[in-house]
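step 4 of 6: structure.
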Amino acid sequence: MTNHWIDIQHSDCILIQGSNAAENHPISFKWVMRAKERGAKLIHVDPRFTRTSSKADFYAPLRSGTDIAFLGGMIKYIIDNNKIFHDYVVNYTNAPFLVDGKFGFKDGLFTGYDADKRGYDKSTWTYQKDAGGIILRDETLKNPRCVYQMLKAHYARYDLKKVSSITGTPEKDLKTVYEMFSSTGTKDRAGTIMYALGQTHHTVGVQNIRALAIVQLLLGNIGVCGGGVNALRGEPNVQGSTDHALLYHYLPGYLAAPRTSQQTLESYIKKITPSTTEAKSVNWQSNYGKYAVSLLKSWYGDAATKDNEFGYAWVPKADDGKDYSVMTLFDVMYAGKIKGMTVFGQNPACSIPNSNKVRAAFAKLDWMVHLNIFDNETASFWKGPGMDPAKVKTEVFLLPASASVEKAGSQTNSGRWIQWRYEATKAPGDCIYAGEAIIRIQNKLKELYKKEGGTFPEPILNMTSDGLAEKGGYDAEKVAKLINGYFLADVEIGGKQYKKGDCVPSFALLQADGTTSSGNWICAGSFAQDGKNLMQRRGKADPTGLGLYPEWSFAWPVNRRVLYNRASCDPTGKPYNPKRAVLEWKDGKWVGDVPDGAPPPLAAEGGKLPFIMKPDGVSSLFGPGLGDGPFPEHYEPLESPLARNLMSAQQNNPAILLYNSDKDMVASADARFPIVMTTYSSTEHWCTGAFTRWQTWLTEAMPQAYVEMSEELAKEKGIKNGDKVRVESARGKLECVAMVTPRFRPFLVNGKTLHQVGMPYNYGWRFPADNGDSANLLTPTVGDANAMTPEYKAFMVNVVKV
Amino acid sequence: MRRRQFLKMSCVLGAGVALCGLGVDLVPIEAWADEIKKIDRLKSARQTMSVCCYCSVGCGLICATDEKTGKIINIEGDPEHPVSEGSLCAKGAGIFQTTEANEHRLTKVLYRAPNSDKWEEKSWDWAIDRIARLMKEERDKSFITKNAAGQVVNRVETLAHMGSSNLDNEECWSITAWARSLGLVYIDHQARV
């Protein structure tokens, strides 16, 4: 979230698109309702009428997989009707930048496409520059090559009629949503967008979010109180687990993972620290070298020295441009190339697309180590449907873990608040912390490598384990301090003394010379210099009166509660909306929230641009960083009801990765599978139900898998509410109960009636008996071109009565 | 409830027991008595602050731990929490069923041998020895120092790790560090799915 949960109450118009917040983030809805009590309008855009829709002032249906068409139409509406927040767009976005003369877009493809590589050469996705390398701009926004005019030209095709024929949303509904939300493009009004997996689970997932961001930037809604693009994250600590890089492509703190072309620390740091010619840009990423060295110091301690590049050689290097994410991982595993796997606190046998492929892949492993609080379909895959245990060679370890209330440690919510929790009791039996399990494995490996030697033992022997443990056992607070970082020598910075062993109170103090450590720079400051744990704070002071609660827990970065908050003020530092001033430049300093960068506002002496994490200092309407285009473009899902994309000759996102195993069948515009399907969750279950299906209080309310369908489709198919039906895709099938409901309505797409159904992904064969199985038996192995988020939300099926 | 009220209630229950032989259904009364006992136990329970383990709103919890048994006897919303203000959804309100009160909790290390059709109970020491041995064997055998282009890569492609965004920050960080020390590149978790 750019903002935080409590901030939703300040919004004047809330657009929920791709989320069912009322059911899946129920307590967040407290703040939506509070905004409504103030007079705010709530809009819900979703394929299904949910409890969120029932509280909305306006509900608009849309066919799954067509958000960019919907939002492209909104961008066109905002520009055509001059609803933009002009001052904000000119000063704080790249709208005035002149785009390179060779850049272009034709019939669904941007310049530089290479069909063999299924990717783009992005050399034309740049700006015109003068001899000194300064980007040329036109602040009147009239030049046809300026980003604003290019944006206008790109979305000229997204008229109401075209958008409606793609999305199935009636034209008058589109217009109503566009009018309502674009009313927030003024100084005194703020609009927020709340989204969840409904936006990300597509082959255009990242571009969906980009489209949301473009809308919000045009309306000046980023950085302001009651605004933002707010991801409602679905797991308790998915913010934190991402921050700490349980992902192949990052190291902690969003530092890119080293690739093979970066053979030295110097070349790596060069790669991750962008330069800028913009004098007014802070370009905070230029500090990333300090954060990388401080990370290596936290990992390898004294073994990391200047002479050995702080142990950079010990960090694994992934091949340039190669994907190692989960669907590729299972594709490689299915091909028999992965031998051993550790799976902690996850149930991929039900959560990863194309479950038949995933479950077959497990049987190719020599061994699997699984850690959890309950058994699940992953741990017990060898006795699942269609498996003959006698033929499954895999050795499986099922390790019992402590539950959340049995653990001390921190967890980061969607608003980036890192909250501490305490151990309420000792875990039962032989259950231990996952952290303790890791230390035991790590120490045993160290012992073996010390005793026996082995291949490249240095990273194993030098990786800290002392830093994680106290008296031989895992100690969460000690790890948290290591993550925060220490001064490793007595130093003086800016006239202030810091002693060796002090906690680093801010990442601004981290160094690239090995005198500081920090396991994750964004968390630096979660401890005060004297070692006080700020994540434990429970202070309720609210100096701004806006519910920022700066003394409750700790929010990364540096306890900032609203990201990009300097963009809430005009170039002189005056808040655009003084009634809800998250920040203000007063008597030579910033007052309010922790400012997003200390320098003065743009127009003041020494003033800087507000988007400090962007090399150019402004936000990006034109976004050349992504792999599939600088502007979001509508493409059909991999499996679509349409044989031809109505927007261009490109049927699917041209930059997606395709898999070709014998389990990866695809059936698009195929008469055998004429119904669009989507998947979702319920209030009573969490993810694959791996915790919640073992709890009687919850299974009593939501006992078994079901497929929701419209009354019209049910009539066509001769299905009654409660009938047993079979749902089938090109990859798999399952039986479940039919839920016939007016919550789904047929769509009119390209002049034809189209049905959509939906299923919760909360079930699996293991427990309770006869509750059904995973909806992911049906989903395709395909993902977003940038982030590889699977396309769970739009694919094709058929439903028949059993 | 004060002690006197509780005693009064106990007398009512005593009379109830006498009625039992007359075919009066006492289950609701007994359940009520259990609730009363629980309230009394709550007064002396140790309170611990926690955070909900489901979605990422991060609602505050108060866990009550019985002083005598050391076990959690109640979990409820924290009214002081500025986001949740004491509210919890159905899952959060039922979090008690993730504790050992749930008979389905795993409490032993389980092992399934190749081609076996059953779990066997094992000790942690046995499991750690075996897991570390398997990891070392595979890593030593398949470690790649240089790729085909001759670039140093120092990685292993036959081992993989998944999970988890249900673990605490400190655990996630420890796992990230450990996985890199082995040389893993196949690392992923729920954030992508």
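step 5 of 6: annotate
 - Chain A touches chain B through 163 residues (CB under 8 Å).
 - The first helix of chain A runs from residue 21 to 24.
step 6 of 6: archive
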